[in-house]
């Protein structure tokens, strides 16, 4: 069974680069990658916060958060 | 042909988590992932700096640097 990976972003240029390169590089045979745009899906900001996301872009793998560069603070999104 | 990805780290706990999870999740069918421990291979610090690495752990993909969380500043390594 594939593991779940969630990539949270906010559509900023730093986020787009990370999505197109880091998230894209993940092995789809082993991981189901969900991409969540918090600017459009603001209802999921609470989920991101609960997962430990402080800024975007961020990748949540195995319930651990990996902040990738810095696009925007979660607190600025809502 | 597989593309090259380089994961620079310094053996710190933040680095190890990122290596075991983010670097490990990369699709080996498409990417050749080289892991460089800058604490042991200090000769490669200049290469990391030239690639734009400011802190480790960092992943260099398609000549772009993605800093993952924060383990140590490159300037503290040498």
Descriptive report:
Two copies of one chain form a homodimer. With 78 residues, chain A is an alpha+beta fold. Chain A has a single domain, classed as Glutaredoxin, CATH 3.40.30. Helices cover 24% and strands 40% of the residues of chain A. Chain A has two helices and four strands. The longest helix of chain A has 13 residues. Chain A is globular and about 35 Å long. The model of chain A has no long low-confidence stretch (mean pLDDT 95).
Q: Would you kindly provide a brief summary of this structure?
A:
The structure is a homodimer of 78-residue chains. Chain A has 78 residues and is α+β, with helices and mostly antiparallel strands.
Features:
homodimer, 78 residues, alpha+beta, Glutaredoxin, four-stranded mixed sheet, 24% helix
Portion of residues in helices of chain A?
Answer: 10-25%
- Mean pLDDT of chain A, to the nearest integer, reads 95
**Structural class by sheet pairing and helices of chain A:** alpha+beta
Report how far the terminal alpha carbons of chain A are from each other: 34 Å
How much strand of chain A?
35-45%
Under CATH, the homologous superfamily of chain A reads Glutaredoxin
Described by strand count, sense and barrel closure, the largest sheet of chain A is:
4 strands, mixed
CATH class of chain A: Alpha Beta
Overall geometric form of chain A: globular
* Major sheet strand order of chain A: 2-1-3-4
**How many strand units of chain A?**
4
Which runs of chain A of at least 5 residues are low in confidence (pLDDT < 50)?
Answer: none
Number of helical segments of chain A? 2
* Domain module tally of chain A: 1
As a whole number of angstroms, the C-alpha radius of gyration of chain A is 11 Å
Q: State the oligomer.
A: homodimer
The ordered H/E elements of chain A are: EHEHEE
**Within the CATH hierarchy, at the fold level, what is the topology of chain A?**
Glutaredoxin
Protein chain pair with the most extensive contact, residues per chain? A-B, 21 and 21 residues
Specify the CATH architecture of chain A. 3-Layer(aba) Sandwich
InterPro entries (chains A, B): Thioredoxin-like_fold, Thioredoxin-like_sf
Pfam families (chains A, B): Thioredoxin_3
């Amino acid at each position: 069974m594939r593991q779940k990976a969630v990539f949270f972003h906010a559509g900023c240029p730093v986020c787009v680069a990370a999505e197109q390169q880091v998230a894209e590089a993940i092995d789809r045979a082993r991981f189901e990658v969900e991409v969540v745009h918090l600017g459009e899906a603001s209802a999921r900001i609470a989920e991101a916060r609960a997962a430990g996301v402080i800024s975007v872009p961020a990748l949540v793998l195995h319930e651990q958060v990996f902040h990738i560069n810095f696009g925007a603070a979660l607190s600025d999104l809502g």
